[in-house]
Each structure stands twice: as C-alpha cells, then as structure tokens.
Amino acid sequence: MITIGIDASRANVRQRTGTEWYCYYLLQQFAQLYDPKQHRVILYVKEPLVEDLQTLPKDWSVRVLHWPPKLLWTQLRLSLQMCLPWQRPDLLFIPAHTIPIIHPKHTIYVAHDLGFERDPQLYANTYIGGRWLHWLIKLFTLGRYGTTELDYHRWSMRYAVHHASRIITISQFTKRELQACYAVADERIAVVHNGYDQTQYVPAAPTTSPAAVPYLFYVGRIERKKNINHLLQAFALLKTQYHLPHQLWLAGHLGYGFEDFQPTADIKLLGYITEADKLKLLQQADLFVFPSQYEGFGIPVIEALACGTKVACSDIPPLREIGGAACWYYDQTDPAAMAAVMQQALAADLATFRQRALAQVKPFSWQRCGTETWQVLLGNVH
C-alpha cells in the first residue's frame, strides 16, 4: 500500500482560476485512476472541502490543517504535518505553489511558469505578514530574501527545484525556462501539458442566437502581467482606424496595476465569472484575445479554440506550442500590430478556421493530463 499525500488547498476554493482549476481537474482524474487496494490518498487543505470536492472517494483521508498561524500555511502547517515520520506519506504531490521545508524524500512538484524571473517588475512589492517579518527574513537570509511577492516566488521556486525528487512542467517552454534559470537535469523533469474539459468546451449549437452586441473577449486577471494596457490601446485603434462595431469584454479578478487602465464606454469589466458563463461568452465572442507578455501554457486559448472561436494572441513560445497554426499571432509589444492582426482574424473565414482549431485542440484533455501525471507519481515511488 502506497500513501500519496496531495496539497489540495488550491483546488479547495469556490472561485477558481488557472492553477486552481488545474488542481481541481487533477483530483477528479486521480479519483478514477487510484486503486483502493494499492493506494491510500490523503488530501491536505486549509478548510473543510467545498461542495464540489465532497464527491471525491470516501476512502480518501482529508486533513484540515487549520491551527494558527494562518500565515505561510505551506511552510508552517504543512511542514509541521510532515514532521512525524508515521504521519508522513510515502509521496507528496504539490500541484501548485511550492513544497514545504519539511517533506518526504519522494516529493513531486509542478512548475507552471517563471514569469517572476523574466519580468520581475510586473510583480507587486507588497509584504507578506508586514514589514517586521520582511526585515526578520532579510536578517535570517543575510539580505538575500524578504517577504515581498517577488522574493517569495523566487525563494519557493529555487527551494522546490533543489529539493523535489521530480518536477513536472506544463509545457516544453516551461521546461526550457526551468533549465535555463536553474540548470535542472533533463531526467528530473517530466512535461505534461494542461488540458481542458472536452465535455463542456464545444462550439455553440447552430440554433444559438448571436450576441445582442458583437464583442471581443478576454478572460484572465486584469493586471500588468497580462499586458492589458496594450490590449486597450489596440482596441482603441480598432475603433478609430478600422471602425469596429464591437465592444471589448474583460473577465477576471483585478490584479496588480489594474488602476493604470482606463476603460471606455465600449469596454465592459465583468469581474469573476463562473465556468458556465465563461463557456457561453467564449462561444458567442467573435474573437478571443490573449495579450500576455508571459505564460507557462494558456488554458483559455485552448478552451476558445475548442469552442470554435477565433483566437488572436501574443507571439510567444508557449502559445505557439499549444495554438499551432490555429491562432493569429501578434507582436504584443506593438498595439498597432495587435490591432491589424485582430482585424485580420475577424475577417477570416470561420469554417476554415474551425477545421484547424478543432484539430489543434484534440490532443489536450484533463483525462490525458491526469493519467500522465498519475504515472509520474507512481513511477517516483516504485
């Protein structure tokens, strides 16, 4: 019997975004793959399981680590749970964030992206736990780290890279980034692409009524890291130079630097949306736009293509890796170039595009992602 511990804290929330949905879908797949005669599964969470996780197998153990302090849950509470050898799982899986300081010999870590290394100026310098803790950590690490968001990202990735027994990356691009920044040996990394829900993300039925107002659609955090400022400038050019009748609809939480953006009457901020609403908005959009300067994968691009919706996105390696010939790519640093490519995409034949799009997304699924990830987990303890 192998005991597999999983940090399920990211999945155990009600308003999920990228990595949280990734963790959620992996748990759903693991529930189909585990053998109760061979595998004992323990979930570590901060709070009792939310409603849609309560359908997981009844023989899975759930450890709610809710004792104080709430700060640094992974490094304090999860580490404390790993202290006693008889409580420690044979293998610990960390699908997002970082590994605890105290961890089993067999610990698998998922690296999603290294944007904090490539574009550090896009990360907030707010302090975790206040300035007193920042200066205490500075003293303890001889000035190398503090408690800013950027410091914590850098420390946690470097610690995970050096201490994880195996690392999963969500794209070939992230694997190359990991090796370029940290010189990780090839045999320590397994590439497992993200997926999408193939039962939900499909083109709209032919009888579906068109949207009352034509719109371009974006989903993701509304922040500097996502290059929203250049998207707004490109959209303004589409309105003035190309006389586009569309609106621009932006869905997602507000993030660092959002106050720099100046929406106009033709731009709608939708806030956080449910998966059902996202599906409908993707299906009815005339164009999905994704202007990020940096990504590790880009799940919304795959979901949009699966809905048969045209995609105009940044010309960066991870989006080329997953979007192939199905997307229109622009120079995300040039609003005029972005506007021209978006106009080209809008004018392109929809039927021809959909053939390319549906063929491109076929290899991506959460079933494949879960199966390949489970194989990495089991391969690490056998």
Comma- or semicolon-separated keywords:
Rossmann fold, 6-stranded parallel β-sheet, 13 helices, 16% strand, globular
- Structure classification: alpha/beta
The CATH top-level class label of the largest domain = Alpha Beta
Query: Which shape, going by the Cα principal axes?
Result: globular
Here the CATH topology of the largest domain equals: Rossmann fold
For the record, the count of structural domains works out to 2
Please count the beta strands (DSSP E, at least 2 residues each): 13
Q: How would you spell out the order of helices and strands?
A: EHEEHEEHHHEHEEHEEHEHEHEHHH
Spatial strand arrangement across the major sheet:
3-2-1-4-5-6-7
CATH superfamily of the largest domain: Glycogen Phosphorylase B
Q: What is the element layout, followed by pairings?
A:
Blueprint: E1 2-7, H1 18-33, E2 39-45, E3 61-64, H2 73-81, E4 91-94, E5 106-111, H3 115-118, H4 131-140, H5 149-163, E6 166-169, H6 172-182, E7 189-191, E8 215-219, H7 228-240, E9 247-251, E10 267-271, H8 275-284, E11 287-290, H9 299-306, E12 311-314, H10 317-323, E13 328-330, H11 335-347, H12 350-361, H13 366-381
Parallel strand pairs: 1-2, 1-4, 2-3, 4-5, 5-6, 6-7, 8-9, 8-11, 9-10, 11-12, 12-13
